[in-house]
User: Which sequence fits this backbone?
């Protein structure tokens, strides 16, 4: 392969991979983020549909510190059709400073996706809103399996203003 073609492939690969950890337009990751307070178990309250979670209920995510400075991620959900638990273990690293809620997460090999914390109860860390590299990935998380209806309504209204299609939200059964 000619050197010029290799150069273009490398540039294209970097653009594609870089796009996987980007932040959507009109959305800003939270500042004054405290990683240690974010660690622990979170319950999925609502999400957009994706093949890797399709049909799952009782979905949760557990975050813990890794020795290399990253965060261990354990996502877990129950498949009622197959009557079994599904679990994925991954790792996350900060893209910017540790006080900005912007991470890249990987569940397989060297491929990373964006984990942008765009809303957070910064007082008590009771709820969080996370999106991916574009507006087709979205999760609303809470420390308990349910979230106060007024808070949830406010979060959904804010997401509409950010340009997310909140009609596509799937509310998770716990």
Assistant:
């Amino acid at each position: 392969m000619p050197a010029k073609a290799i150069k273009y492939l490398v540039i294209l690969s970097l653009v594609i991979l870089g796009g996987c950890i980007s932040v959507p337009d009109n959305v800003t990751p939270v500042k004054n983020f405290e990683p240690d307070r974010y660690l622990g178990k979170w319950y999925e309250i609502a999400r957009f549909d994706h093949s890797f979670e399709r049909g799952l209920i009782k979905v949760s995510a557990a975050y813990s510190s890794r020795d290399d400075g990253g965060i261990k991620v354990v996502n877990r959900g129950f498949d009622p059709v197959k009557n079994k638990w599904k679990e994925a273990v991954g790792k996350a690293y900060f893209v910017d400073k540790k006080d900005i809620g912007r991470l890249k997460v990987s569940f397989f090999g060297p491929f990373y996706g964006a984990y942008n914390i765009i809303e957070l109860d910064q007082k008590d860390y009771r709820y969080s809103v996370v999106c991916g590299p574009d507006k087709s990935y979205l999760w609303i998380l809470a420390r308990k399996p349910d979230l106060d209806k007024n808070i949830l309504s406010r979060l959904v209204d804010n997401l509409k203003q950010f340009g997310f299609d909140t009609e596509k939200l799937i509310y998770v059964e716990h």
Remarks:
- DSSP finds three helices and nine strands in the chain.
- The first helix runs from residue 3 to 19.
- The two ends are 53 Å apart (CA to CA).
